[in-house]
Design brief:
Layout lengths: L3 E5 L6 H12 L2 E4 H14 L7 H5 L7 E3 L5 E3 L2 E2 L7 H10 L3 H14 L5 E5 L2 H5 L5 E6 L2 H14 L6 H17 L12 E4 L5 H19 L4
Parallel strand pairs: 1-6, 1-7, 2-6, 7-8
Antiparallel strand pairs: 3-4, 4-5
This protein binds cytidine-5'-diphosphate.
Length: 225
């Protein structure tokens, strides 16, 4: 049986950390759509273009090729950008890039194709509402701003990315605002999504909770499977 799981939610809610673990446990393919918007942003910055310049940024549609490797590596036009796309300078610009409809259509098309032939768990902002509206399971993962900022700060420090907690909190708030106020496919909870507040949960607890939700939903949907 081919299963599709959509996990959406605000910045740094821990979606990718848990989605990766759930995918491993269930044998699904994990698709990090945020990495694609980040890679596109990295490319614009490499080209010296202002990410707030819509016309200049959309020019690269068709010229940018993004590959998500199975081991988590991200390639942009054959360059390994896995680490570079996590830098604060990219985080600070990605929400502008993600607000451009032409770029979203270009990347969403690839995301839908990736979900065609495998069981997938895909995380992002618009997966349950726009990319995979018929997903078998939809989860909206949230946590307080303070928790999210602290999690991302710890993650960055462990990766050797220099930052302060204040900067991260500001970035998270700014991205949430832009992501939820854009015109096209904004961050919003799908009507049929289950909201999971992970503020006081460990990674293992979130993974278990998500696996239980998937299990329950699939049993309801396919009682004879
Ligand atoms: O991991 P984190 O929550 O910091 O963000 P991400 O998933 O890597 O996504 C980075 C940015 O890409 C978000 O802040 C959004 O602006 C954009 N994004 C989006 O618009 N739609 C998606 N499906 C995924 C990401």
């Amino acid at each position: 049986m081919k299963v599709t799981v959509a996990i959406d939610g605000p910045a740094a809610a821990g979606k990718s950390t848990v989605a990766k673990l759930v995918a491993k446990k269930l044998g699904y393919v994990y698709i990090d759509t945020g990495a694609m918007y980040r890679a596109y942003t990295w490319y614009c910055m490499e080209k010296g273009v202002d990410c707030q310049d819509h016309d200049a940024c959309i020019n690269f549609v068709g010229e940018v090729s993004i590959v998500l490797k199975e081991d988590g590596a991200v390639l942009c036009n054959d360059i390994d950008v896995t680490r570079a796309i996590r830098e604060p300078r990219v985080s600070g610009n990605v929400s502008y890039i993600a607000s451009y409809k032409e770029i979203r259509l270009f990347l969403v098309d690839q995301q839908r194709k990736m979900a065609e032939s495998n069981s997938v768990i895909m995380d992002g902002r618009d997966i349950g509402t726009y990319v995979l509206p018929n997903a078998d399971v939809k989860i909206f993962q949230i946590a307080s701003v303070e928790t999210r900022a602290k999690r991302r700060y710890d993650e960055n420090i462990s990766k050797g990315i220099t930052c302060t907690l204040e900067e991260i909190e500001e970035d998270v708030r700014k991205r949430d605002y832009i992501d939820s106020h854009r015109d096209f496919a904004p961050l919003t909870c799908a009507e049929d999504a289950i909201t999971l507040d992970t503020s006081n949960m460990s990674i293992e607890e979130v993974v278990d909770a998500i696996i239980n939700i998937i299990d329950k939903r699939l049993k309801e949907k396919y009682p004879n499977a």
